[in-house]
Amino acid sequence: MRRQGFGALLTDEQWAVFLKAGATRVFPDGEPIMRQGDREGVVYMLAEGTVKVSVVRPDGTESLLALRGSGEALGEFSALSGLPRTATVTPTGGGCLTRALTSAHFRLLVGRMDLHRALWEHVVKRQSEGESQRAEIVALPSGRRLAATLLRLTGVLGTHVPGAGGAKGGGDGAARHGAVLRVGLSQKELGDWIGMSRASVAAEFGRLRSMGIIRTGRQYVSIRDLDRLREVAQGDS
After folding, report:
1. Distance between CA 233 and CA 185 in Å, rounded?
2. Contact status, residue 202 vs residue 188, Cβ threshold 8 Å
3. What is the mean pLDDT of the chain?
4. Torsion angle, CA of 123/127/129/132, rounded to 10 degrees?
5. Tens digits of residue pLDDT in 109-129
6. I need a labelling partner for 99 at 20 to 30 A (CA). Which of 42, 50, 120, 197 fits?
């Protein structure tokens, strides 16, 4: 299975060491794995499933920060710093299977396998990801912003499949390269995440459907033509 985040920087053997060392913890859809402000000294290795990372602002509103897929280490920042959890992490679109290690055990394995460089590379990539998303919110119009978000999620969470042929503008009806996203987010959550109203998200989804680029259903988006979606994100369509 394709791994994301910290796990993507490890060999299969190294990832297996973390999984073997941790205690199995299963979390159903919607049950928090960790909560903002907690001081629990545990790192969760996400073996299966998708989670959303969110924070509660001082005014009490909840803001989505990211979606993470299998292969991620959850709570590693607290393990390194000793500080309280900075966000709440919750399964979305289905339950999650994790392996739980104490912070001390996680740090021990990182040192034993000489993975400090990989861990800090992971930290820097997370920071860069957040900066790129903030830049998109400022710079891109809504249609391009939604398309860019769908592409980014495809890289992290998508299951690639042969796309349906005959999309509008597709010419000869040849099969297109596509993907399926099971993100478990409402249109309002998605809009809040990328700085769009629910109505704008619904309108842009409708436009992409009318172009034959996507299909949507309950808690999933089927991308029928990734190439054309990239064109929309780049402003070429």
Report:
1. 21
2. no
3. 87
4. -160
5. 999 999 999 999 998 988 888
6. 120
